[in-house]
UniProtKB/TrEMBL annotation, chain A:
GO terms for molecular function: structural constituent of ribosome. This is Large ribosomal subunit protein bL28m. It comes from Frieseomelitta varia. One of its GO terms (cellular component) is mitochondrial large ribosomal subunit. InterPro entries: Ribosomal_bL28 (IPR026569), Ribosomal_bL28/bL31-like_sf (IPR034704). The keyword Ribonucleoprotein applies. The lineage of its organism: Eukaryota, Metazoa, Ecdysozoa, Arthropoda, Hexapoda. The keyword Ribosomal protein applies.
Automatic annotation (TrEMBL), chain B:
The lineage of its organism: Eukaryota, Metazoa, Ecdysozoa, Arthropoda, Hexapoda. This is Large ribosomal subunit protein bL9m. One of its GO terms (molecular function) is structural constituent of ribosome. Keywords: Ribonucleoprotein, Ribosomal protein. PANTHER family: 50S RIBOSOMAL PROTEIN L9.
Length: 273, 272
């Protein structure tokens, strides 16, 4: 970095982000790791990536891949599109033509996926690319476990991946069939080495869900109580103690032989009785 | 960000007035996987920068390829059960990706040909076994088609006749099947006519394919004349007519032959 830009960075005050204050700053490192994996630039699907460091194109120039900006609509998170998304841009027919706005949509279809670990058929919206990827990875579970979160992208896919990882880590798959459980577990156990148990606990959550989870687990423990309540409780305990002491005293006093109101013998009775 | 449905609606709205957008009339929107490229490549950025400075012209895209138009890849599978028109149990087959997924992988009729699965499920000497069973790969299909066929044998209403092999051969040829005479076996009893009692009644012939497989084919006798007054006319389609055997002892065999695919549907409709 040149000296010119060094000056800029030294006096630059960073903007506050969701990670600098509040619950975001308190979230555990495990969740931040997942977040970084999720928000990385995904692999090139809608454009062809240039390979190498330099290319000779009239003159030598470095290769810089600038990804096409993609739109992720609401429906994207309810299906598994295999890296495809909506592209918003322009078309231009020839040099002197006006540019026209154009949207490129992926082909969606309703299909079924089968998860071997969960032993479930799930009906979801997919694209042809998703099914090709599932076939390339030899199964839906392998596809989810091998692909990083940035390429899965959709919340549904990450939720299913989370379920699979949890059931593998806790070994809760196939509760009725121990033989099958061992077989399936041995097929997939290599994927567990990439994560610790805490990382799986925080994997595949949206920011909102992570905050809720944090509040539920950690914030409740360190709840701030008003001092008023504490003092009141102390006072009540004190009073109760005093009361009990008094009662004890009175019992002691009444038990005393001389202090009884009623004499144990009648003074007016004759001796002869 | 706009909602997805809203995006689509907005896009369609812009297309509703054709005259206002004459340039785009020919380019109809279709939903496919596109590979695009920038018409004007993005400028270079410095090392301390994360993105280049982009203007509107860097969002003008050009079509490169549509992956849905590509020829589909074939994937290798090992079959777990016998599947009609695909293969037998333990056979390694290669089928197009999408079709394999929907028809074989999801119903668990096959597994992917991974090294472990190959060891577990592949049966090596199945080729030999198959050769001993069928004379050709397409025999099962031919048997299916022939056993479903209702072969109409049209005979004269005026001239006397007895059914011979060449009558059956010609009837086959009318239906589009070339069957040599020496492969046809007629029933032992002779059928003579013209006899309107056996009109629309059935008998069966046996056809031998490749000197190995035998199929029973049902034949129906129909009487024909060019005189329009004496013509026998049916109002319902042929598969709806009752099937009665000429020789009562053949009735169980004729009933066991597969029926026309539409025959069941019509039965159901009539019941309703």
């Amino acid at each position: 970095m040149s000296m010119k830009h060094l000056g800029e960075t030294l006096y630059h005050i960073r903007r506050p982000t969701r990670w600098t204050e509040g619950i975001g700053a308190a979230l555990p490192e495990e969740y931040k790791k997942f977040w970084k994996e999720w928000k990385r630039t995904p692999t090139a699907v809608h454009y062809i990536e240039q390979k190498g460091k330099y290319m000779i194109f009239a003159s030598r120039r470095p290769v810089q891949n600038v990804p096409l900006p993609l739109l992720y609509p609401e429906e994207f998170h309810k299906g598994i599109w295999g890296g495809e998304a909506v592209i918003q841009g322009f078309t231009k027919k020839h040099k002197y033509a006006r540019r026209y706005p154009h949207f490129w949509f992926p082909t969606l279809k309703k299909s079924v996926v089968y998860s071997e670990v969960l032993d479930k058929y799930i009906s979801i919206v997919v694209t042809n690319r998703t099914i090709d990827l599932i076939n390339e990875h030899y199964g839906f579970d392998h596809y989810l476990l091998k692909t990083p979160a940035c390429d899965l992208k959709s919340e549904l896919a990450l939720k299913i991946k989370r379920e699979i990882l949890l059931s593998l880590a806790d070994k809760t798959l196939y509760p009725d069939d121990p033989l099958k459980r061992e077989e399936i577990y041995n097929n997939y156990k290599e994927y567990l080495t990439a994560y610790t148990r805490d990382e799986i606990e925080w994997y595949g959550l949206t920011y909102k869900e992570a905050c809720k989870k944090w509040i539920k687990h950690y914030a409740e423990k360190e709840k701030v109580m008003p001092l008023k309540l504490q003092y009141r409780a102390e006072l009540i305990a004190e009073l109760e103690q005093e009361k009990s002491q008094e009662v004890e005293k009175t019992i002691f006093v009444t038990d005393n032989y001389f202090c009884r109101w009623k004499l144990p013998w009648n003074p007016f009775s004759s001796r002869s009785d | 960000m706009l909602k997805y449905t809203q995006l689509c609606l907005n896009y369609l709205k812009s297309h509703s007035t054709l005259l206002s957008h004459q340039n785009n009339v020919l380019v109809q929107q279709s939903r496919n996987t596109y590979i695009l490229k920038r018409k004007y490549p993005a400028p270079l950025y410095k090392k301390h920068q994360r993105f280049p400075r982009m203007t509107h012209k860097h969002f003008i895209y050009e079509y490169v390829e549509n992956t849905n138009r590509r020829k589909q890849k074939k994937i290798d599978l090992v079959l777990l059960e016998d599947v009609k028109n695909v293969g037998e149990k333990g056979e390694k087959v290669s089928i197009t990706s999408q079709r394999a997924y929907e028809t074989l992988i999801l119903p668990k009729l096959a597994v992917y040909a991974t090294p472990e699965n190959l060891k577990k499920y592949l049966i090596e000497d199945e080729m030999k076994k198959k050769l001993s069973l069928n004379s050709s790969k397409f025999v099962t299909r031919t048997i299916d088609i022939l056993s479903q066929c209702y072969l109409p044998i049209t005979m004269s209403i005026e001239n006397p006749w007895t059914i011979e092999k060449w009558h059956v051969r010609v009837a086959f040829r009318n239906e589009g099947y070339i069957v040599p005479e020496d492969t046809i076996t007629l029933p032992k009893k002779t059928i003579t006519g013209p006899d309107l009692n056996i009109e629309n009644k059935e008998f069966y012939v046996i056809v031998k394919i490749n000197n190995q497989e035998e199929v029973k084919v049902r034949c129906k006798i129909h009487h024909y004349t060019s005189d329009p007054e004496n013509k026998v006319i049916y109002e319902v389609p042929f598969y709806q007519l009752p099937s009665i055997a000429i020789f009562p002892e053949d009735q169980p065999i004729l009933d066991s032959l597969p029926k026309h695919p539409l025959a069941d549907k019509i039965d159901d409709d009539l019941k309703k």
